[in-house]
Amino acid sequence: MDLGDVEIRPARLNDEELIRRFLTGLSARTQTQRFFAGMSRPSASVVRALLTVDEQRDALLAVRGDLLIGHAMSYRGEGADVEIAVVVSDEWQGQGIGSRLVRRLLHRASAGGAETLGMDVLGDNRRVLAMIRRAWPEAIMRTSAGTVQVTTMTLL
């Protein structure tokens, strides 16, 4: 797959239909790894929350033509300056899209003053946990009720 024609851009409120199609096209496993539950049809409030960019939240999309292939969001966290969440469509996983989204999101968060990063990952999401260990070897990981809470510095 050619990554050269994948654009990483900020989400816009008029991307509602794009994000809705993206979410319903994710496998049940991918939905669960990102949202900790499957969703047959995303609610309007979930769609809006994933697209909202304001002083507390940021959202980026990975787009190839008119196809959304990845979504990343950050929000001002409780245990860290910024909490992040990322999901990539099943057919594009393992191609570096998630890493590109994370790097861009963290660059934007760091520019806004964030120094610490937090994220919750399902304990069986080995691919993401391995990526975290590579990118942030100093990350603190705490396991609780099947999830791993990760805290580290924002710099990659």
UniProtKB/TrEMBL annotation:
<dbReference type="Pfam" id="PF00583">
    <property type="entry name" value="Acetyltransf_1"/>
</dbReference>
<feature type="domain" description="N-acetyltransferase">
    <location>
        <begin position="6"/>
        <end position="156"/>
    </location>
</feature>
<dbReference type="InterPro" id="IPR000182">
    <property type="entry name" value="GNAT_dom"/>
</dbReference>
<protein>
    <submittedName>
        <fullName>GNAT superfamily N-acetyltransferase</fullName>
    </submittedName>
</protein>
<dbReference type="InterPro" id="IPR016181">
    <property type="entry name" value="Acyl_CoA_acyltransferase"/>
</dbReference>
